[in-house]
Amino acid sequence: MTIDIIVTPDPGAPDERGPVTTGRLRWPGGEVPCVLGRGGIRIDKREGDGATPVGRFPLRRVLWRADRLSPPETALPLHPIAEHDGWCDAPEDPAYNRPVVRPYPASHEEMWREDHVYDIVVVMGHNDAPVVPGLGSAVFLHLVRPDHAPTAGCVALTPDDMLRLLRDCEPGCILSVVSPVA
After folding, report:
1. For residue 118, what is the domain's CATH number?
2. Does 182 reside within a domain?
3. Model confidence pLDDT, tens digit, residues 92-142
4. How far apart are the first and last CA of the chain?
5. For the chain, which end, N or C, has fewer CB atoms within 10 Å of the first or last residue's CB respectively?
């Protein structure tokens, strides 16, 4: 049975402190806090806005740092991250919002990071079927920073919460990011 995963922002409205950047991630197996994009949650996601996009996104596959962790327990497809892996975030490039091999001439995310944020990455089906230049790239479910700082538009969990969620995931799982109620 596939599961639906729901992400909602914490209560509150954007104010002088900025957009809401924390929320809750719920699925039939649990509920955990999550960190959202520095731009809050937006219906009209654009490249570089720092927002977590509203929508329903299939979980495509799990990437992980095999030099740091054992493969996560999950029924989703698993692929180890290599030192040369990147993800193109240049809207004008033909590889926009797709994995690339570094070095790469256009702007891109480095998937092999020192800060542990990408030790586990779940690739979400955001702006990938088809890819539309400028509507956002590299929107992942990944690990939180130690200070729980907002992401660049992704959803982030603690390592323990990520591993707990992944145990319940299988192909067909959908992560839904819900718009805040006005």
Report:
1. 2.40.440
2. no
3. 999 999 999 999 999 999 999 999 999 999 999 999 999 999 999 999 999
4. 33
5. C
